[in-house]
Amino acid sequence: MVPHPLRSGTSSIQSSASTSESMLPFAGVELGGTKCVATLAYGPRALIEQHTVPTTQPGETLPAIRAILESWSERTGIEALGIASFGPIALNRTSSDYGHILATNKPGWVGADVLGSLSGGLELTTGFDTDVNGAALAERRWGSGRGLDDFAYVTVGTGIGVGLLVHGRPTRGIGHSEIGHIRVPRLQNDLVPSVCRYHDDCVEGLASGSALLARLGNRVLGQVAPDDQLWNPIVAALASMAHALVCNSGPMRIALGGGVPTAQPHLLDRVNAALLDSLNGYMDLPPGPYIVPPELGELAGPLGSIALAADACAARAQRPADAQQEMIRP
Ligand SMILES: [Zn+2]
């Protein structure tokens, strides 16, 4: 594990978490496909300590993170723990597999009990969600979604993940949002096979970083100009997904980040324009750019886990009030 140099400063979490001045720091764990980041912080301007652990096997990675959490618990104390994990993950609290990894392609991780391994026995208030839902919550607290109850965070990297907030909370139901796997119309001349092994024409299969590599063939990315036709089906698929988001839960703004848009900033304007074409005047979007870059950059993931901890803490503070409401309700 590699200690990370950290900045310090005042906390911006305390006002929104409805907690006392003596609040302890939050602990967060971002579980990624190649590395996990454990963060002890009050918020973006008050990071205390951070460690990176390689994602190898659950029996190795999870105990290493657990040891960090235990050391923080003993040294400083922890107000609440947030875990933002790669998916798919089980989020039904009443189910026996709550907190486990589901059908991931990642060898060894199917069925891994992430929540139990990291928090079992520590008696901590805990928030658990996908990495992208965590990032959406972090952008809502501190970044491009500030003040918006309805907001989407899209990351286009190896795959496509979408964190979707409705009424200030990540969507629930069968599970977390999987909008990266909705099927979208292919452009007529697009014959490149989908990289999704489940769907021939889903957004991830047509427009992810893996799809981009497939589209490149023998070409080198650095030699592909912004006006190259290679981008057309990628723009079309991302705009179709944004169209679906607008018509479905209607986020007030969409943050579009991840390795592909970050390296190809020309995509953002094109997807915005293609979205307007696609909507064809049927719905009005809020003023200003609708699809924007995330503001938190590489910190969106680690801060996502801190946001989950802060939200769990706020929910804990809210519960007695709810219970009181229940008692006085006729
Ligand atoms: Zn798919």
TrEMBL record:
Key words of the record: Kinase, Magnesium, Metal-binding, Transferase, Zinc
Primary enzyme class: transferase
Gene3D superfamilies: 3.30.420.40
Entry-linked InterPro entries: ATPase_NBD (IPR043129), Carb_Metab_Reg_Kinase/Isom (IPR051804), ROK (IPR000600)
One term of GO molecular function: metal ion binding
EC number: 2.7.1.4
Presence of the UniProt keyword Electron transport in the record: no
Transmembrane segments: none
Superkingdom as given in the UniProt entry: Bacteria
Catalytic activity: D-fructose + ATP = D-fructose 6-phosphate + ADP + H(+)
The protein's required cofactors: Mg(2+)
SUPFAM superfamilies: Actin-like ATPase domain
Keyword field contains Magnesium: yes
PANTHER family: FRUCTOKINASE, TRANSCRIPTIONAL REPRESSOR MPRA
Protein name according to UniProt: fructokinase
Lineage of source species: Bacteria, Pseudomonadati, Pseudomonadota, Alphaproteobacteria, Sphingomonadales
